[in-house]
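User: Predict the structure for this protein chain, please.
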Amino acid sequence: MLSAVVLVPLAGAVLVALAGRGSAGLARVLALASSLAAMAVTGVALAGMSGAQGLVERLPAGGEGATWWVLSLDGLAAPLVALTAFLGVISILASWRIERSPAAHLALLLALQAAVAGVFLAAHVLLFYVFWEAVLIPMYFLIGLWGHEDRRHAAMKFFIYTFAGSALMLVGLMMVAFSSASLEFVPGFGLTAGGMADEMRATVFWLLAAGFLVKIPVMGLHTWLPDAHVEAPTAGSIMLAGVLLKMGGYGMIRLAMPVAGEAFASAQPVLVALGIGGIIYGALVALAQSDLKRLVAYSSVSHMGFVVLALGVGTPLALGAAMLVMVSHGLVAGMLFLLVGLLYDRTHTREMDRFGGLGRTLPGWATAFTFAALASLGLPGLSGFPGELVTVLETFGSIGWWAAVAAAGVVLAAAYNLVAVRRVNHGPVAQEWAGTSDLRAGEWAAVAPLAAGIVALGVWPALVVDAAGPVVRALAATIGGGS
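Assistant: Here is the predicted structure, written as structure tokens:
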């Protein structure tokens, strides 16, 4: 069943690419059916998961009983696998009106979904790296072929940054491989390297962390992200913000931290500093933007800073909060990028100065955007609130009043989100958009599930925290974060 979570969208990609070439309508129907089938298969897999170790699946893929096709679904992977399947459907709906080579576009989205699901499910070093690199290919072409004016530059920058990080990660994985008897992850925990010399662990940790921190991305390694987001098509931005960035945080928890716990302990102050720096820097730059999509892109840098900060604190509650922030950001950023894309499709601009009064001309869009902005700023009752609150509280327990600097990021988030809502939705009506149509029923079909997910996670964060609990408690005990 776990293999089906990867293979169903992959088979759908092949089917859409071959059968949908001659008919855009058939390509859309096949793509939506494939993504819905993938979500159904994911639901069955999640329903069958039990115990701290979850499900493990090995298929023959080597001689003499050895295999590298090992997949595992535990409480750490489950929320992210579910998020990937959910956003896979949303991204297909967001691409419904793509007119240029729709079959290829939709096939690449399905291939991207398959690769990302593979990253979260892989329980073997070789398979993890294969899926990790496979993600680059469809994302590169989605940005480079269906993006906006400066798409080729953005696609190449995305590829160079993430490939360079991956190369360093590969060196770290090879060092683990040469010093370990098994390349399989420990079920319900992560990568270990029992035979590795202690003096090598710090090197391995930073090699792995380099690849993961580029993907998150942390401040200083983030410059590829705003360009990629701004130039990517709407569905590409949804998948990029929704699940690709989470690969970095997941990799830190699943591989880097368990394989080198002592090295992680010495790196904690660096991660805390990078997290706080990212929160403040991303928020300040977001506040200065006039391009609505670039504002959302820099807000991602700030929100993912909370993830890095929580990882740096390293307590069970903080690691659970990191998971919660990642899933919440996937929903909130996905909804914001979807709405900005729908507005751009109507107006062909993202400049906030050209809008105004959309609350009267596009009341449905304006209501949805206000809701998403409130979720992004961390309004209680919505998904952005519990994860960032726990992160700040756990940071206070770890470094005292320095946590107030991170808390200032919440204030700045309120500032840039509310300023965006005021500039776009309120004030004098921009007459050039007076006759613009509001959200259609098909577009609500993509927007409404995201809003429902944001509310559900806001009132019931245990959906993620309880699932990830056994894994993060075991990890925290190993790295000295307590139990």
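The mean pLDDT is 92.
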